[in-house]
């Protein structure tokens, strides 16, 4: 599992990058004189290019050295963040976010697939959970630290901190990761057959709608908290969400290995996730309890990914890398769609409370598909 920790640290950098922007939106808005809904494009474009690049790269680089691909993708990711930090215009910033997203789309699914190859069969669930846990740790530790740097210095300083993390991740991959190869790519017909498999399609659509709700809502956490509480202080809410994500990511692998019923776990997770989002406006002004919905939201949102990856690998045992890439793609595509729709909601003046309603509607679609999967796709 020590080698898996190297991959987990790389995911730490991705988690930091994907979620810090939601916290520094006010600073970016002020620098480039853009409103919040426009700055939300920085999140949308990152996640969109992540979604588009993941399945393409999974097939394009199959059969190549995992170590080299992970190293080069982290290098591009780090360079892109350097450009973000020094971007003279908002357009260049968006371009840099697109490049960073594409590099993350290459790194993430390959890291998850590699983690499962580095351990024995009975530890695969834990390995996937630990790798995904690196991303949630990037939120628990990285995002609050980045926000602190933002408050003390500037949003650009937060990005420079991310650059430093990327450099450390590259060093770890270069020195400690063993040389393994990705699986040989299947024939084109076999790849198309996987994408048209009803079981795979329904599973990734469940991920898609849950992501629209969970990650899309997270993007606009700043205006949401400000509308509900009258304060722009996000720190405690981000801590609650991030610690929930860490808890969910680390515990879910053990639950998968122990109960061996990932579909049942996904059903429970989706129901609790919906309940937690619904409870935000009801509990946010209650002492102590105000943070509970955010903790549960983070825990369930992050816990949902590992069993979904596990389910897809069982559907496509000979094409696990592409299946994982497809799920990661739909996860971040959902985030991009959620962030874009959320920006539209705010731009039309509906208010941040409307984001909760849209999130719940999206979760209903996800739950209905999950019930169909449990009942008809066993």
UniProtKB/TrEMBL annotation:
<dbReference type="Pfam" id="PF07690">
    <property type="entry name" value="MFS_1"/>
</dbReference>
<feature type="transmembrane region" description="Helical">
    <location>
        <begin position="38"/>
        <end position="62"/>
    </location>
</feature>
<feature type="transmembrane region" description="Helical">
    <location>
        <begin position="345"/>
        <end position="372"/>
    </location>
</feature>
<feature type="transmembrane region" description="Helical">
    <location>
        <begin position="159"/>
        <end position="179"/>
    </location>
</feature>
<dbReference type="InterPro" id="IPR011701">
    <property type="entry name" value="MFS"/>
</dbReference>
<protein>
    <submittedName>
        <fullName>MFS transporter</fullName>
    </submittedName>
</protein>
<dbReference type="InterPro" id="IPR050189">
    <property type="entry name" value="MFS_Efflux_Transporters"/>
</dbReference>
<dbReference type="InterPro" id="IPR036259">
    <property type="entry name" value="MFS_trans_sf"/>
</dbReference>
<keyword id="KW-1133">Transmembrane helix</keyword>
<keyword id="KW-0472">Membrane</keyword>
<dbReference type="InterPro" id="IPR020846">
    <property type="entry name" value="MFS_dom"/>
</dbReference>
<feature type="transmembrane region" description="Helical">
    <location>
        <begin position="200"/>
        <end position="221"/>
    </location>
</feature>
<keyword id="KW-1003">Cell membrane</keyword>
<feature type="transmembrane region" description="Helical">
    <location>
        <begin position="127"/>
        <end position="147"/>
    </location>
</feature>
<feature type="transmembrane region" description="Helical">
    <location>
        <begin position="236"/>
        <end position="256"/>
    </location>
</feature>
<feature type="transmembrane region" description="Helical">
    <location>
        <begin position="69"/>
        <end position="88"/>
    </location>
</feature>
<keyword id="KW-0813">Transport</keyword>
<keyword id="KW-0812">Transmembrane</keyword>
<feature type="transmembrane region" description="Helical">
    <location>
        <begin position="94"/>
        <end position="115"/>
    </location>
</feature>
<feature type="transmembrane region" description="Helical">
    <location>
        <begin position="265"/>
        <end position="284"/>
    </location>
</feature>
<feature type="domain" description="Major facilitator superfamily (MFS) profile">
    <location>
        <begin position="3"/>
        <end position="377"/>
    </location>
</feature>
